[in-house]
Amino acid sequence: MDLFDAQALPDINLLPYDGEALYLGKIFDEQQSERHMQTLLKQISWSNERIVVRGQTVTAGRKVAWYGDANYSYVYSATKKIALPWLPELLPIKTQVEEKSAEFFNACLLNLYADGSQGMGWHSDAEKELVAGASIASLSLGAERRFVFKHKRSQEKVEVHLPSGALLLMRGQTQQHWLHSLPKTTKTSQARLNLTFRRMHAQ
Fold first, then answer.
1. CA-CA distance, 121 to 40, in Å (whole number)?
2. Contact, 136 vs 198, CB < 8 A?
3. Is 146 exposed, middle or buried (0-12, 13-18, 19+ CB in 10 A)?
4. What does DSSP assign to residue 86?
5. Residues with Cβ within 8 Å of residue 50, at least 6 apart in sequence
6. What would you report as the CA-atom Rg of the chain, rounded to the nearest whole angstrom?
7. What does the DSSP 8-state code read for residue 29?
8. Contact between residue 112 and residue 143 where contact means Cβ atoms under 8 Å apart
9. Once rounded to an integer, what is the mean pLDDT over residues 59-74?
10. If you average pLDDT over residues 54-62, what whole number do you get?
11. Which residue did the predictor score with more confidence, 87 or 74?
């Protein structure tokens, strides 16, 4: 499917079937987005992503952080993470995301991509620690990047550009039927910060 101009398509489902991926618009303007990004770059406890490849644990370029209402454990990219307590800087962002999406979230996984050479391969967010079928809200800050969905059975693809301040809500059967990725690109040397708000099982 052709690349969507997300800014022209607020509050619509980008997926043609088997799930919902709602583009909810830019919830922060350019100035707000830049302020939030600079604050989070400085205040978040970033760590390099550790992933398992062919049985070997390696360090990826992407940096990550994991926060929540409790010390939720989360097995992600074949490594276990324990949630840190919410930083004060994250809470107003969380409130705005919840108000715009009309959802409740109790944890947030943050991914920091230093530039276009870093991305994320095909995956779905369906780990057992997540409440099955619960919505996931993805907030983009920084560089505008291409985000791609691929149906697990038909292989149909849906692509969208996500600008800084944009909120994407994945809900329903999306994780069951669709994969998603953040392709690498040579078109930007700027950083992108992605906050994915999730709902975890009580522990």
1. 24
2. yes
3. middle
4. P
5. 57, 58, 59, 60, 77, 79
6. 16
7. -
8. no
9. 88
10. 69
11. 87
Q: Pairing relation of β-strands 145-151 and 178-182?
A: antiparallel
Q: How far, in Å, are 23, 59, 167 from residue 86 at the CA level?
A: 26, 25, 20
- pLDDT of residue 16 exceeding 60, the answer is yes
How many Cα atoms sit within 13 Å of 13 on the Cβ side? Answer: 10
| Nearest partner of 110 among 160, 172, 41, judged by Cα | 41
Q: Which amino acid is at 146?
A: R
The one-letter amino acid code at 130 reads L
Nearest to 46 by CA among 129, 133, 114, 104: 114
What's the CA gap between 48 and 36, in Å, rounded?
A: 21
Helix (H) or strand (E) segment spanning residue 197? strand 192-198
Quote the Cα angle for 85-88-92, to 5°. Answer: 115
pLDDT at 15 over 60: yes
In this structure, how many other beta carbons lie within 10 angstroms of the beta carbon of residue 193?
Answer: 22
> In the structure, what pLDDT confidence band is assigned to residue 2 with cuts at 50, 70 and 90?
low
DSSP three-state, residue 33 = helix
Are the C-beta atoms of residues 168 and 22 closer than 8 Å to each other?
yes
Please list the helix, strand and coil fractions of the chain in percent, rounded to the nearest 5, in that order. Answer: 15, 45, 40
Burial of 168 (0-12, 13-18, 19+ CB in 10 A): buried
